[in-house]
Design a protein that fits this description.
Layout lengths: L8 H4 L5 H19 L13 H30 L2 H14 L4 H16 L6 H24 L4 H15 L4 H21 L4 H15 L3 H7 L6 H14 L4 H14 L2 H8 L12 H19 L1
Helix pairs in contact: 2-3, 3-4, 4-5, 5-6, 5-7, 6-7, 7-8, 7-9, 8-9, 9-11, 11-12, 12-13, 12-14
Length: 298
């Protein structure tokens, strides 16, 4: 049976001012409070047909979804409360059940949760892998909902890269190639997707750490540390305030022996605000890298 088509304010108007969202919440509160006060619900005038009423209801629902997404983003990006962010996104999904914008955010939340799970015992690792697989599931849903979703592909690249850590040599090489392909596809769809550039850079960097002959056998000979630096630089150009981009780029330059370029990025990091829950660790790693460069230069 074909699905009914719904107009999505979330996807069609991603930058709707917040006051509209607040207004929609007030409308919903007003509609809910009236019956509780014993007021009579007002029927629409005769000239308002069913199509108009349905369209108005869809707009209210979509604005409600937008409000839930904004709340989720606040938890994810400001308070670093990934569980509450996930809960808001799942609530939004009940309103907009086929939104790629919600799907990729759910994928992000699952990755953020999994990254901070314990991984000491076998049961720990099994649960962590299952959480990354949930992230993969929702990234796939984002792409299914919108094959042109750049963030859907970028988030799938992230989830796949995490799953690859749990895989054997041959399976992981196949997954690494998929990460590269998804990152490249995300960039094709949106060249300004900083996460996609970062993931492509990191894939080149991490893969190039393996011996060249080993990579040739596994079909990973394409990895290039200089190419990693190119994509890291582009990610930084698009989002200069993100610490993880700069520390990754500095590491690549350190391995290339280009210490001045590494120090240029490291010098900026202390002044950057915390935008990721791991930024304190990244700042400490930046200090450690500064010391290593100093030792190399002596």
């Amino acid at each position: 049976m074909p699905q009914s088509r719904r107009v999505s304010v979330v996807s069609a108007f991603p930058s709707i001012p917040q006051f509209f969202c607040g207004a929609s919440v007030l409308v919903l509160m007003f509609l809910n409070v009236l019956p509780a006060l014993g007021a009579t619900q007002i029927s629409p005038p005769p000239h308002v047909n069913d199509t108009t009423a349905i369209a108005q209801a869809v707009v209210v629902d979509s604005m409600s979804a937008l409000f839930l997404i904004q709340e989720g983003d606040e938890f994810a990006e400001k308070e670093f409360d990934n569980q509450r962010a996930l809960a808001r996104y799942l609530d939004a999904l009940t309103v907009e059940p086929n939104s790629d914008e919600i799907f990729w955010r759910i994928s992000r939340a699952y990755v953020d949760i999994a990254e901070h799970l314990p991984s000491v015992t076998e049961n720990d690792r099994t649960y962590q892998l299952a959480t990354y697989e949930r992230a993969m599931e929702y990234a796939n849903k984002a792409i299914g909902a919108d094959p042109g979703s750049s963030m859907g592909y970028a988030r799938r690249a992230v989830a796949t890269s995490r799953i690859a850590m749990f895989s054997g040599v041959w399976e992981s090489s196949e997954l690494i190639n998929r990460v590269r392909e998804d990152a490249q596809r995300a960039i094709e769809l949106d060249p300004r997707n900083s996460l996609a550039h970062f993931m492509l850079g990191r894939t080149h960097e991490r893969t190039s750490e393996r011996p060249w002959m080993f990579r040739v056998v596994l079909g990973l000979a394409w990895a290039d540390l200089e190419e990693a630096a190119v994509h890291y630089e582009e990610a930084i150009r698009l989002r200069p305030d993100f610490i993880s981009y700069r520390i990754s780029c500095a590491r690549a330059y350190f391995e290339l022996g280009e210490y001045e370029k590494a120090k240029a990025h490291l010098s900026v990091i202390p002044s950057l605000l915390k935008l990721d829950e791991d930024d304190d660790r990244f700042k400490q790693e930046a200090k450690d890298l500064v010391e290593r460069i100093r030792e190399e230069e002596e």
